[in-house]
Amino acid sequence: MVVTLCEIALRLPAVLSLKAKRSILKSLISRLRQRFNVSVAEVGEQDKWQTSLIAIACVSVDSVKAHQLTEQVLHFIENDGNVEVIRISRQIF
């Protein structure tokens, strides 16, 4: 069993309020959960308007599948027009 944890720092350049930020993140998190069946949560920068830190965790039978799923999730986030990826931190257990 392999567990992958990925922390992603995001910038939300068009956001002008916490309400708008939460709306964008709620939508992104929901789409990630539905499409990839991963655990996702905002884990930092909750009080800042234009930045956020989300964590994604997935469990897989082998490391190749876990890596592929993580890459798909990251590609999906990078192609979202509302957010910009600043930093990515990955851990495999």
CATH superfamily: TT1725-like
What CATH architecture label applies? 2-Layer Sandwich
The whole-angstrom Rg is 13 Å
| Helix content, binned percent | 25-40%
Strand content: 35-45%
Structural summary, described in words:
Helix content is 38%, strand content 38%. The protein has 93 residues and is α+β, with helices and mostly antiparallel strands. The chain has one domain (2-92): TT1725-like (Alpha-Beta Plaits, 2-Layer Sandwich). It has a 4-stranded antiparallel sheet with strand order 2-3-1-4, with helices on one face. The radius of gyration is 13 Å and the shape is elongated. It starts with a strand and ends with a strand.
Topology:
Layout: E1 2-11, H1 18-36, E2 39-44, E3 51-60, H2 63-78, E4 84-92
What keyword list fits this structure?
93 residues; alpha+beta; Alpha-Beta Plaits; 38% strand
Question: Could you provide a short overview of the structure?
Answer:
The chain has two helices and four strands; from the N terminus they run E-H-E-E-H-E.
